[in-house]
Specification:
There is one protein chain. By secondary structure, the protein is an alpha+beta fold. It is built from four helices and eight strands. The chain has helices at about 35-40, 45, 90-100, 100-115, and strands spanning about 10-15, 20-25, 30-35, 55-60, 65-70, 75-80, 90, 125. The strands form three sheets. A three-stranded antiparallel sheet has the order 1-2-3. The longest helix has 14 residues, at about 100-115. The chain is globular, with a radius of gyration of 14 Å. It holds the Pfam family GBBH-like_N.
Length: about 120
């Protein structure tokens, strides 16, 4: 992370943990759904160790963020009500996800459909 990378000035849960709002020092503000953060977790559990190992998760429409915990001065760890707590979300990762949130979520919906999964029924592929 370079000194020119956007830096968060505010991070807070909203909607009873249904979303995370992140405001950056360049003026951009993102509201990321707990569902999108959960299914795009940077954890090895979700991402695997290669693109071939990446999982598509279904049944996460109603997942909630329970806690937001700082990790050093570069990231946060999100604890979700489904027990997932191993993803470390860096500032640059949150910024990238926020900047592409709409396109990324559409891609996620396509992945679900292609794998016979849906947002309401638990499953993974």
């Amino acid at each position: 992370m370079s000194t020119n990378d956007p830096w968060p000035t505010e991070i807070r849960r909203e909607d009873e943990g249904g979303s995370l709002v992140v405001v950056f020092d360049d003026g951009l503000r993102f509201r990321l759904s707990a569902e999108q953060l959960r299914v795009r977790s940077p954890s090895a559990e979700v991402r695997g160790h290669s693109e071939a190992e990446r999982k598509t998760l279904g049944g996460k429409r109603n997942v909630r963020i329970l806690t937001v915990s700082p990790v050093g001065n570069y990231a946060v760890r999100l604890d979700f009500d489904d027990g997932h707590s191993t993803g470390i979300y860096t500032w640059s990762g949150l910024y990238a996800l926020g900047a592409s949130a709409e396109e990324d979520f559409a891609l996620y919906l396509q992945e679900l459909a292609a794998k016979g999964l849906d947002r309401d029924r638990p499953g993974e592929a």
